[in-house]
């Protein structure tokens, strides 16, 4: 209690204002306590002559003096807070800040007094530069630091990277967790997936909004956050940090914070790319704009490529570029044009290559665009186009009247070179996987089964990455009826998923997600063998065990109840009539 009382009067003595301690001392050392109290009230009450006669009137109404003084105090504090906010906007800049600085000097000693603290905090909030000494005192006191406005904290943070890092770190962890929760969500749908929310919707997320507020218009803090994101991206290779890099810049763009947008060299490029991501397509006009930015990187400014590559490494950017590439390839088939003759396609590949090379570029600090392998354009993409042609020919052939020789079977093999490309070339692998998602979405079972074996071994296991498996499981819901077929399930589960389940926990999770959604389509015998194969091991994480238990429960419910299985009793004996139980 003594500590609480001390806090209540903190700093009054320094200003020569009597406090509770002084009253205690007066009463301890006096002979006539009532007289002493009266004198203390006169000296320290509200010094208005007209008030003296009115106070006894309040006494008659039984209103305690404390209540009266408290209401006067609250009223005055409100007026003072309003006045401080007004001073911060009026007169010449130097004058207004001089007034506020004087006010801070007078009132700062009372900053720990709960009733006065809001006023002191309000003065500091309106000062663009709080004196260093005061900031140090606030920083050293946990409660004061917690109580001060974000405007004051920014001034503290900009010279204390470690403290700012402590504030930002939990937000970044939360952001990554949110992304992973979406990728592993139990809702599997082709209509609503990881890439469904528009950029503008994503920027309204809690973490982006909080970071935007913490940064304000402070370029130094913005640079610090970007530095944190680069460091974390390097340390973890987690591409969601690249998404946050772009979202943060566009969130500041939405608020028209030119102080930051004009100094971030990626601003216009990111803005243009953002529009493409919104449309999930890079049209010709925007393609030319993006190319202009890339070609415009001047000698001596190559470092900006590191930032641009991080913007292009954002999964939402890669998704847009890859979908646009697949669309272009289909158009080229219709136009009888080769990939190397399409400048738009070459630009998409250039940006994909820059995005996929982000980690290496930032790690090596060698800022130049990665060299594109000629074979990607001269061999791999024509091969993909030939798959599109195979599908067209097969469809046409099915419609032709069959002759003696019978229908032509669907091609079942894939060129060895295709598999090799997926294993050795990152861009080829990315485009190959997106083509595979494309045929799955078209419910093209023949092409699906033909290309699936090529996915078992891919460049840095990209076919077992969370984003690809999230999209694949969503698209597989369109092939739901095929799950009843033994051949299909064996190819998909035994031939693909189960090859990686034991070494990759995330694959185990995605298979269980898929089965939770589609188990009712799978034949009982196949389900039984899958249930055995997918049983968690001692090393399995909680998420896998939880999903496995959910699946086991669902399968338990599917089993016919013993009553249905037992033979029907012979009906020779008359059955006693069983009364219907009364409703409870």
UniProtKB/TrEMBL annotation:
It comes from the Eukaryota. Pfam families: COBRA1 (PF06209). Residues 558-584 are annotated as: Disordered. GO terms for biological process: negative regulation of transcription elongation by RNA polymerase II. One of its GO terms (cellular component) is NELF complex. This is NELFB factor. It comes from Eudromia elegans (Elegant crested-tinamou). The gene is Nelfb.
